[in-house]
Amino acid sequence: MANVEDPAIEEAYNDVRDDNTETNWMACGYVGKTNDLEMIGSGSGGIDEMKSLFDPTLVIYGYLRVIAGDEESKRPKFVFVVWVGENCGVMRRARVSVHKADVKKVIKQFAIEWQGTEESEFEYEDIMKQVRKVGGADYQGNW
């Protein structure tokens, strides 16, 4: 079981959701070899800025706000991000599916879940294509 009790994680999640802040991503990771999670970063630079934290030895859970829609209807959508570094430990990797459920008790509202092991799997346009598919109205036909 992952320990997601750090109040900074929920505060950062709420900050990303708040339309009145510039913050559009947050990320948390494990404290050493424990199952305790702590905030490791947040910012306003989107997925590209979040990727600067991706390390091949780490597992990171993140939350990303993007703006979807077209000229008729722009709205925020949210993405639950899971980075599983290629060189993270076998046991850490094995626990990701179970620990994701614990993290989702705090990071509750999102349109899609995006998981990968290589930075190239976290391209903004690929994420947006999937967000548009699940997002409903798209009067520009950007699917």
Note the main attributes of this structure.
single chain, alpha+beta, 5-stranded mixed β-sheet, 4 helices, 29% strand, Coactosin, ADF-H/Gelsolin-like_dom_sf
Describe it for me?
- The chain has 143 residues and is of the alpha+beta class.
- The protein has four helices and five strands; from the N terminus they run αββαββαβα.
- The chain has a five-stranded mixed β-sheet, with helices on both faces.
- β3 and β4 (73-84) form a beta hairpin.
- The chain starts with 6 loop residues before the first helix and ends in a 9-residue tail after the last helix.
Main sheet: strands, sense, barrel: 5 strands, mixed
Number of helices: 4
Adjacency order of strands in the biggest sheet:
2-1-3-4-5
For the secondary structure, the number of strands is 5
Strand content: 25-35%
- Poorly predicted sequence stretches spanning 5 or more consecutive residues: none
- What is the element string, with H for helices and E for strands? HEEHEEHEH
What form results from the Cα inertia axes?
globular
Helix content: 25-40%
What is the gyration radius calculated from CA atoms? 15 Å
Determine the structural class based on helices, strands and strand pairing.
alpha+beta
Distance between the termini: 38 Å
Summarize the structure.
Its main location: cytoplasm. The chain is of the alpha+beta class and 143 residues long.
Topology:
Elements: H1 7-17, E1 25-30, E2 37-43, H2 46-50, E3 59-70, E4 73-84, H3 90-103, E5 112-116, H4 124-134
Parallel strand pairs: 4-5
Antiparallel strand pairs: 1-2, 1-3, 3-4
Protein name: Coactosin
Pfam family, one: Cofilin_ADF
Keywords: Actin-binding, Cytoplasm, Cytoskeleton
